[in-house]
User: Which sequence fits this backbone?
């Protein structure tokens, strides 16, 4: 299915969005061209082609605008509907963007497990090894979750999904992540975290009923803020990386959609999430790989050789926070492009509330791996890193009982166990 989907509907970065009306205009333009030519043969040919197209369309027509695309045929629709089916009283049907990603795959599984309907979408980009994303997809598939291959910039594909399923919620986790990579590929951040976000919001705004939206912001929005622990009320106007800036922009953009169109929006500021099936670009993951392969690791140090620290948060805690947010998000209030009343707009920190330094992280990994790391200390390059993060989580705690339960030592043990079972001791499958 995926390959056919690709052929019919390639979703590449920078691809121009085609509005529904453009088809119509194109058609009219073609027609007037035919009429302006004076050759009878042309006219006959045009009529013949028109009849052919019309019969093709009516044959495949199911009352939906784009049902004649083969990726969106009956079989495809049924599969999507099945995946979205709710199997508990008062359950929800959730569109999870970035469902082949680290947090996305975990959240999708947790929702399905408790009886909610789930459909995923992911563009399977190669920011990190796509085979890991495919393995997550296979895991979701085994649990009855369909993952559609597509980019969140593809408005047509998103609208089609909303035509097929009246999603009650969107868990928006598709993004260009990574703090330091923003210097290498700035436009990928704008593409996914800004343009993609707006496309998704436009589709959600137009959907009837509108879904409630929960999405991933980032602890990095606190930037150069040095008041600890970070509270949602602290200033977030001094981002240290383009990544952080695009997440901050997302918070402002979602606010406008809440304000104008009545979309219920919850932004979650994740604090350095780690765990099984994690992201290979993150420090705990690449350190593990390098330690096992006997390769050196680079440990950054801050000003005056101060250790950097992160409020590392275990994936299961983050998943609980995501589900808690979905459960308390209330309804969107708009329809037909206008809001009918106020809708929730919320922002929560989801952290662990106990920062750990990077050298301590390495120490824990050494212990679990029973191997010594070859550490190279390097002064923190000016590439977007912040010296430390530390979440105040009282807001999420009082709103939906968020209470992180896994410390770094325990969480990394689970990660290492997964890593060894997935890649093997020698990491021979690691690229
Ligand atoms: O909290 C967040 O919102 C962010 O958390 C992480 O960003 P970061 O905390 O920088 O996570 P890592 O890239 O795993 O780095 C963790 C620590 O290790 C350090 N590090 C990283 C890489 C390296 O080679 N050496 C090294 O010492 C970093 O400076 C940082 O202090 C994620 O990668 C971001 O996508 C996410 O948005």
Assistant:
């Amino acid at each position: 299915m995926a390959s056919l989907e690709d052929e019919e509907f390639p979703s590449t970065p920078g691809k121009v969005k085609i509005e529904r009306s453009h088809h119509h205009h194109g058609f009219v333009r073609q027609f007037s061209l035919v009429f302006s030519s004076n050759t009878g043969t042309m006219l006959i040919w045009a009529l013949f082609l028109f009849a052919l197209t019309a019969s093709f369309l009516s044959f495949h027509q199911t009352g939906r605008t784009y049902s004649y695309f083969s990726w969106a045929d009956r079989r495809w629709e049924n599969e999507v509907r099945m995946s979205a089916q709710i199997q508990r009283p008062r359950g929800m049907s959730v569109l999870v963007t970035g469902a082949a990603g680290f947090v996305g795959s975990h959240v999708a599984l947790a929702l399905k497990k408790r009886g909610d309907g789930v459909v995923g979408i992911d563009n399977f980009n190669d920011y990190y090894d796509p085979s890991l994303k495919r393995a997550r997809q296979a895991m979701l598939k085994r649990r009855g979750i369909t993952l559609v291959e597509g980019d969140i910039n593809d408005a047509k594909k998103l609208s089609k999904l909303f035509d097929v399923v009246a999603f009650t919620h969107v868990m928006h986790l598709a993004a260009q992540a990574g703090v330091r990579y923003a210097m290498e590929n700035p436009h990928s951040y704008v593409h996914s975290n800004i343009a993609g976000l707006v496309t998704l919001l436009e589709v959600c705004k137009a959907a009837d009923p509108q879904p409630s939206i929960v999405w991933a912001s980032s602890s990095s929005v606190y930037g150069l803020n040095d008041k600890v622990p970070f509270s949602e009320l602290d200033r977030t106007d001094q981002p240290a990386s383009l990544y952080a800036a695009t997440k901050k922009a997302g918070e402002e953009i979602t606010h406008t959609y809440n304000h104008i169109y009545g979309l219920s929006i919850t932004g979650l500021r994740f604090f350095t999430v780690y765990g099984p099936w994690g992201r290979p670009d993150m420090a705990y993951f690449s350190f593990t790989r390098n330690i096992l392969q006997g390769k050196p690791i680079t440990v950054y140090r801050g000003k005056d050789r101060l250790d950097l620290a992160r409020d590392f948060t275990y994936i299961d805690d983050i998943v609980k926070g995501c589900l808690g947010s979905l459960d308390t998000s209330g309804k969107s209030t708009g329809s037909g492009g206008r809001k009918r009343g106020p809708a929730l707009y919320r922002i929560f920190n989801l952290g662990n509330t106990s920062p750990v330094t990077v050298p301590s992280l390495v120490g824990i990994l050494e212990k679990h791996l029973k191997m010594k790391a070859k550490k190279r200390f390097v002064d923190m390059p000016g590439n977007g890193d912040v010296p430390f993060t530390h979440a105040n989580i009282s807001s999420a705690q009082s709103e939906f009982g968020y209470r992180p339960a896994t410390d770094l030592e325990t969480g990394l043990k689970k990660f290492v166990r997964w890593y060894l079972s997935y890649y093997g001791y020698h990491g021979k499958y690691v690229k």
Observations:
- The CA atoms of residues 229 and 390 lie 5 Å apart.
- The longest strand covers residues 212-218.
- Residues 177-179, 218-220, 270-272, 282-283, 298-300, 308, 310, 358, 385 surround uridine-5'-diphosphate-glucuronic acid (CB under 6 Å).
- The longest helix spans residues 40-60.
